[in-house]
Amino acid sequence: QVQLVESGGGLVQAGGSLRLSCAASKSAFRFDTMGWYRQAPGKQRELVAAITSGGSTNYTDSVKGRFTISRDNAKNTVYLQMNSLKPEDTASYYCYADRSVARVRYWGQGTQVTVSS
What we know:
single chain
């Protein structure tokens, strides 16, 4: 069973930065797209950023220019550097990892990000 272990969430003031990490437990597996979703109270889960195994990235419009997604394929780890944080970024952030060959998506347990104004 693959586990995705997230870290790096917390409380930060508006304008501050946080870096989220998500490491997969099965180092022998190779994942295709990895990324991050977030869900705020009373809102639908939304895709924040994604990165392919080749390094292609995409972001939701609200975080472009502020967030950067990256990954270390050797460590099966994906990162989300979040700068210039805003109160509207407050949410639970969930990482995911796809194994297309098995048609499976794995999820992390979620980490809370709270941005105070």
